[in-house]
Amino acid sequence: MNPAIFKAYDIRGIYNEQFNEEDAWKIGYASAQFLRSMLSGFERGQTNSQAVCVGRDMRTHSNSLAAALIEGMKACGANVIDIGMIDTPQIYFAVNHLGTCGGIQVTASHNPAKYNGFKISGLQAKPVGIDTGLKDIEHIAMALIHTKGNATGKVEQVDLTSEYKNHVLKFLRPNLKPLKIAIDASNGMAGKMVPALFGDLPIEIIQLNFEHAGVFKHEPNPMVEENLAELKAAVKDNKCDFGICFDGDADRLMMVDEKGVNISCDLLTALIASYFLQSNPSSAIVYDLRSSWVVVEEILKHGGTPRRERVGHAFMKKALRDSHAVFGGELSGHFYYRDNYYADSGMITFVHVLNIVSGAEVSVSELVKPLRRYFSSGEINFKVEDKQAKMDELQKRYSDGQIDNLDGVTIQYKNWWFNCRPSNTEPFLRLTVEAKSKEVLEEKLSKLESQLGKPV
Length: 456
What we know:
Number of strands: 21
CATH architecture of the largest domain: 3-Layer(aba) Sandwich
Strand content: 15-25%
CATH superfamily of the largest domain: Alpha-D-Glucose-1,6-Bisphosphate, subunit A, domain 3
Strand order of the largest sheet: 1-5-4-2-3-6
Helix content: 25-40%
């Protein structure tokens, strides 16, 4: 087995080049062994506690990989609840709704069609990453020999669509006004889930790329600007109230206003935070450290408690639990909810956006306009072999600023700031710069680029 498929937060690689069904069987066996070993004595006695949920996305190889994964779990003696072709957040719901010891979604999220992988969750849908069990699963899987011994585990197929729909729609406020919305499903799981969950609502949906043909019209990553072109055109051509683009497994989204202008996910975090604080006064709100100054300003303005956190869903989810935060947002398009088991959900985010837009007396662009008070570079990648040395160099060069090292190095001044953080898996440094004026942003970004090299 190729150890390179084990990443910081999941297992992922090129199908039939970096891993195959044989590896999926071993990962299934190892995951079931690990997840069951983490149960307490009390938990072991609960119904379904020693079972594992398995779901899959729409990729052409997801069926065979899920089948092999399940066979590995059965060989380990685990019972499996197969919940079919779903969006990734439904796994988080299923683990909690059914009370299993964990769940695995077969998906490669926003990666191209040749990729696939496994997202593993533990009890209560807590993420299993490199520091919370994925390294143990790797060690078990790497040592296994695939044998055809008696599989003692049982498989039950369960369709949770109705229960999941009820869970998602319980967040919808009454008296939703008619809206027209363009949705780009990116040929991913939103193509199945959006009609299933929202088909009964008084909204008109302009559907883009809802088909599952095993190929992607554009890569299923809404954070890449070129992947939003079709959505923006549809919003303007159809005079929509706004547009949404989901990623491949529908746990992330990007929003554009009625003019087809991007609403960056930190601005959307600020907008949703103020909405939540109306009904949850003084609650904590978690945001990732790449976010605009606007986010903390809006949280404080509406009486909330800002909680700044490292990038990554494992850190965000833990921060939400630790602070009992009602909501959290990440620049990557993940949005997290206390009342969704502290997990992220693209579909629940869509519901809250519907609530906000339906309750507003102005257009989406006017709603967001007051939040557009700073100028940001977005996150830019630079190829750097010695990442720590380069970050140390930046810290020395900008030693007159306010410095912290929560994730990489963040340095703040009165009229601008930047964060430079290392990739967990690649020889990249990721830079985000924000300033109070466009001129300051361009000046500071140019200087930083001269020190980091050419963006990639």
